[in-house]
Specification:
alpha/beta, Rossmann fold, six-stranded mixed β-sheet, 21% strand, globular
Length: 306
């Protein structure tokens, strides 16, 4: 893949560091016009729905942690939770509670030992290869440390899902990558940089841009603010809120960041004692008397918000 020298010139407005929501909306309108003139190409916005009820529902999920000899160390579950369309739900819990593992199972990266996971009314682990592929392009995943390909520029990282899942022309894919870069608040020149040339906050934003490449319905975020200073974490929180509002996303986030919990979530699910201990609004959870939950919200590292 050649250098992405045309990114800065893809849209003049992308030369600005601070791109407004109105400008992003105008860019999306322009890209919609471009896509409508490419009827021979796969339009990523016209994937046929796989069910009318757009939510995630997992029931009786059980998984095991194993050692290097594949011996079971301990088992987590059964876990039960439903995520509603348009909701921003956070999954929290101590180390080993199963937060990141559960996320991997929802996005088809790891099969649970037993139980049911339904997305868009489809039992995901019973889908064939073609339907699984179609499902995967309806959600985006930001991994804990970004997981960008070090040998590719930011733009090339964002272009990868588009190259894999569509037959769009290369120029249009470049323009879509430029849009995603602007959408997450990065300057256009960031598209030409390699991950090693970026700050921690920029890597997080670039990873979110890649997760949004295929215009997903659901965005999964694994510890997005980990390693960021308070100002950078707050800025990323604001970005996630804006993206949810602008794009109508359902957001599922694993986090330890209490500031993020208090600022942006609709509902929080607490994993502990190898099950879902509770799921409710942050204010209601903070009032519960369960010792694990109370220590999480009222303990020495908690915020004084109650």
């Amino acid at each position: 893949m050649g250098p992405i020298n045309g990114l800065v010139n893809a849209f003049p407005v992308l030369a600005k560091v601070n791109v407004t929501i109105t400008e992003i909306y105008n860019l999306e309108q322009k890209l919609d016009e471009i896509l409508s003139n490419h009827q021979d190409l796969v339009n990523i916005n016209n994937i046929q729905p796989m069910g009318l009820n757009k939510y995630i529902n997992f029931k009786n999920i059980v998984f095991s942690y194993r050692d290097d000899s594949d011996r079971t160390l301990f088992t987590v579950g059964p876990l039960d939770l439903k995520v509603n369309k348009g909701e921003m739900i956070f999954i929290i819990g101590g180390n080993g509670s199963g937060k990141s593992t559960l996320l991997k199972e929802i996005v088809l990266l790891q099969r649970p030992r037993s139980g049911s996971i339904r997305i868009f009314d489809q039992e995901i682990w019973q889908l064939g290869e073609r339907d699984s592929r179609n499902l995967r392009r309806r959600f985006g995943m930001m991994f804990q440390h970004g997981a960008l390909f070090g040998g590719l520029t930011v733009a090339e990282n964002i272009m990868m899902p588009l190259l894999e899942h569509t037959r769009l022309a290369s120029q249009l894919i470049m323009e879509l990558a430029a849009l995603k870069i602007a959408l997450v608040g990065l300057p256009a020149i960031a598209g030409t940089k390699y991950p090693s040339q970026l700050s921690g906050g920029m890597i997080k934003r670039a990873a979110i841009a890649r997760a949004l490449a295929l215009d997903p319905d659901i965005l999964f975020l694994d510890e997005p603010t980990a390693g960021l200073d308070p100002q950078g974490a707050a800025a990323l929180d604001d970005l996630v809120l804006q993206l949810r509002e602008l794009l109508g996303l359902t957001v599922v986030m694993v986090t330890h960041d209490l500031d993020t919990l208090w600022r942006v979530t609709d509902r929080v699910a607490v994993l502990g004692e190898r099950r879902v201990l509770a799921h409710d609004t942050i204010n209601n959870l903070a009032q519960l008397e369960h010792p694990l939950i109370r220590n999480y919200f009222i303990g020495p590292r908690a915020r004084n918000n109650t």
